[in-house]
Amino acid sequence: MLRSAKSLFAFVLVLGVGLASTVTPASAAADKVLDWQVIGEGAGQCTISASGAVTCTVQGSATGDHIGKGTYDVSSTLGTILGPNGAGGVCALSSGTGMVTAADGSIVFFNVTGLQCQEGLSSNPPAGSFNGTYRITGGTGRFGAAAGGGSLTATFANSPGGVFAPGGVSLIKIDGAINL
């Protein structure tokens, strides 16, 4: 009996050592792919440069996974205008950059590309929307090695001061995955 107990103990020990070697080391456990969602409200505005380029910016306060209460700032420049849409405005390809700042001051930087559309005639101050994707390009603080991406949508509200002028409500939603 003693001999079979020793054999069983040796088998369990070898099995345990084998399983332990497949466990992820603590340093690798820090790299995690997590769901990431940020929702925010603020102001938006579009400006026209001397060269005629239209750049739209939305910024404000945000809350979300892994940031707590923070802020967002996204800017995109309109490229090729695709023509009129069914709402009486136009749509254009758009690209730019953005950042989300967490409650602790850590920042996530990202690039955006997508489609920006007006919801009305260009002679009125039209409301608009941006639908696109983002790719995380880096960060600071605890987001220093961040990577990831997903979808980004933003809306711009009319305001009495002009096209997307400050004072109109802007909303943003960022959905995707982040690797910390």
Describe, in plain words, how this protein is organized in 3D.
13% of the residues lie in helices and 57% in strands. The chain is mainly beta and 180 residues long. It has one domain (27-179): AOC barrel-like. The longest helix has 19 residues, at 2-20. The protein is elongated, with a radius of gyration of 24 Å. The model is unreliable at 8-17, 19-24 and 26-30 (pLDDT under 50).
Key terms:
AOC barrel-like; elongated; 8-stranded antiparallel beta barrel; single chain; 180 residues
How do the helices and strands line up, and which of them pair or pack?
Elements lengths: L1 H19 L5 H4 L3 E16 L5 E11 L3 E17 L5 E12 L5 E13 L7 E13 L7 E10 L12 E11 L1
Antiparallel strand pairs: 1-2, 1-8, 2-3, 3-4, 4-5, 5-6, 6-7, 7-8
Quick overview:
The protein is mainly beta.
Topology-level CATH name: AOC barrel-like
Radius of gyration: 24 Å
- Indicate the structural class: mainly beta
Low-confidence regions: 8-17, 19-24, 26-30
